Amino acid sequence: MIIDAHSHVHDPVEAHVGLLDEAGVDRAVLFATRPHPERAGDLTSLRREMAILDEAIGGRAGTAEGYRGAWRELDAALAARPERFIGFLSVPLDLEPERIAATVEREVVGRGLHGIGELTPPPGRAGMIEPVLQAATDHGRLPVVVHGFAPTTADDLRTLAALAGRYPSVPLVVSQLGGLNWMQAIELVRDTPNMYLELSTATIVFAVRLAIKEIPDRTLFGSDAPYGDPVLARAMVERVTGPGEVRDRVLGGTIAELAGLD
Fold first, then answer.
1. How does strand 3-8 pair with strand 27-31?
2. What is the CB-side half-sphere exposure of residue 116 using CA atoms within 13 A?
3. Pairwise CA distance, residues 238 & 152, whole Å
4. What are the chain's domains?
5. Are 67 and 92 in contact (CB under 8 A)?
6. SS (H, E, C) the chain
7. Burial degree of 151 (CB within 10 A; 0-12, 13-18, 19+)
8. Are residues 246 and 216 in contact, defined by beta-carbon separation less than 8 angstroms?
9. One GO MF term, please (predicted)?
């Protein structure tokens, strides 16, 4: 099974399904989103959507109220195409630890979702995800996905690796190949057994090749659609791997295990 390990709700949902069909992708991990760049028809409207994105990934839109609309969109997409989408849910990071734990129990575990994410702590404050890791520990091997591209910093990646060491039962996925810090991300994930590296938004082909070579069992094909394209993301993985077990794991086998699909 081919699984895109990183995508966001599209408007309309069927446009996303069309991209998956074109790429030959069977299923996709689906995250909620507040910005919708796929709606933009010109530069002005795209700037509006990207301003919302800047707030989200900068940790400036992390309240429960800010999440509510995005959760509703995610619910609708999962209900419309349950055979194609694998639901993950982000949680607000500015809540008290006990409220984060209650949110994970009620909104993730209670609704039968497969993991937590994509978390977007403010730059320099990756430690804010620790209560989420504690909650994930309390519920077994719930995978936790954290934004890895800018404004995530190299120090944030080191913080994530340290936190992963404190919660070794939780699979911690760094998205977008760690952005411009991809070499450090590869090293940290390689040396931290419960960390994983998702490969979307890579602009350098040998970054993908080296990541898969160094950590073949813990690298994940992802597109970050609508920001990326499943066709291109899959082609890059297939360009740097040959047919066989490693390619199969990267293109879906590993995320299937993490999401409990096996």
1. parallel
2. 34
3. 28
4. 3-258 (3.20.20.140)
5. yes
6. CCEEEEEECCCCHHHHHHHHHHHCCCEEEEECCCCCHHHCCCHHHHHHHHHHHHHHHCCCCCCHHHHHHHHHHHHHHHHHCCCCEEEEECCCCCCCHHHHHHHHHHHHHCCCCCEEEEECCCCCCHHHHHHHHHHHHHCCCCCEEECCCCCCCHHHHHHHHHHHHHCCCCCEEECHHHHHHHHHHHHHHHCCCCEEEECCCCCCHHHHHHHHHHCCCCEECCCCECCCCHHHHHHHHHHHCCCCHHHHHHHHHHHHHHCCCC
7. middle
8. yes
9. hydrolase activity
| Residue type, position 254, single letter | T
Four-point Cα dihedral 195, 206, 230, 225, nearest 10: 60
Instruction: Please indicate, yes or no, whether the overall pTM of this predicted structure exceeds 0.85.
Output: yes
d(CA 28, CA 81): 11
235: which residues sit within 8 A by CB, 6+ positions away?
A: none
Q: Per residue of the chain (262 residues), give pLDDT as tens.
A: 999 999 999 999 999 999 999 999 999 999 999 888 888 899 998 898 888 777 777 666 555 566 788 889 999 999 999 999 999 999 989 889 999 999 999 999 999 999 999 999 999 999 999 999 999 999 988 999 999 999 999 999 999 999 999 999 999 999 999 999 999 999 999 999 999 999 999 889 999 999 999 999 999 999 999 999 999 999 999 999 999 999 999 999 999 999 999 6
Token output for 252: 């879906």
Query: Comparing C-alpha atoms, which of 54, 127, 50, 135 is closest to residue 91?
Result: 135
